[in-house]
């Protein structure tokens, strides 16, 4: 008998994680070795335990699923990673593929189908939900530079320019210039609107 697929599940919603753990443990060839309720903890446990597959919620506090995947890929390169998401924002798939994620599924996926995706990914295959793939192909092109994206990402976590500047090790004037350029390119009236638009598109 072959060894079961060792699985880590990370989701900040306790009920969803518990339900997934219970349902997937019913599969004879899948063993849930640990769980986590945030991305940083998931990455640390994955690097320590080296599971075969990590099932990561996209939207977790602090370190999101894609950021956690990047950490796991660096510290446990043999671990395969699947992202689960409720809202498949258009640009997120491109970020996921850049982070070497090999599975991307919606949270509405039935447990039986998810178990098969886990098996396929563990066997070296890639699985991208067809609707998510179609949305990514029709997504709006990102006109922003990496630094403009950085300041918009920081805008979601910090309320004023000085805090953004400190977080990114930039001067407040430089941050204002990047924010102004981003708002102009996106046609937005303030930095919060620009950051929200970039987030909705999956650019940050």
TrEMBL record:
Keyword Hydrolase annotated: no
Domain of life of the source: Bacteria
Secretion signal span: none
Alphabetic keyword roster: DNA-binding, Phosphoprotein
Domain Response regulatory: 6-122
HTH luxR-type domain boundaries: 137-202
Residues annotated with 4-aspartylphosphate modification: 57
Cross-referenced SMART domains: HTH_LUXR, REC
Keyword Nucleotide-binding among UniProt keywords: no
CDD domains recorded: LuxR_C_like
Name of this protein: Response regulator transcription factor
């Amino acid at each position: 008998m072959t060894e079961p697929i060792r699985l880590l599940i990370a989701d900040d919603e306790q009920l969803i994680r518990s339900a997934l753990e219970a349902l997937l443990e019913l599969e004879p060839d899948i063993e849930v070795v640990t769980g986590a309720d945030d991305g940083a903890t998931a990455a640390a446990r994955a690097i320590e335990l080296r599971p075969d597959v990590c099932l990561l919620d996209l939207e977790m506090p602090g370190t999101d699923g894609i950021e956690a995947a990047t950490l796991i890929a660096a510290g446990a390169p043999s671990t395969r990673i699947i992202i689960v998401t409720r809202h498949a924002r258009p640009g997120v798939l491109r970020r996921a593929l850049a982070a070497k994620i090999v599975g991307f599924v919606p949270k509405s996926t039935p447990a039986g189908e998810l178990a098969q995706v886990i098996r396929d990914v563990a066997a070296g295959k890639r699985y991208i939900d067809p609707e998510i793939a179609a949305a990514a192909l029709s997504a709006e092109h990102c006109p922003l530079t990496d630094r403009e994206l950085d300041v918009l990402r920081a805008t979601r976590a910090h309320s004023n320019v000085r805090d953004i500047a400190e977080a990114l090790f930039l001067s407040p004037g430089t941050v204002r210039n990047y924010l102004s350029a981003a708002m102009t390119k996106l046609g937005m009236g303030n930095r919060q609107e620009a950051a929200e638009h970039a987030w909705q598109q999956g650019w940050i």
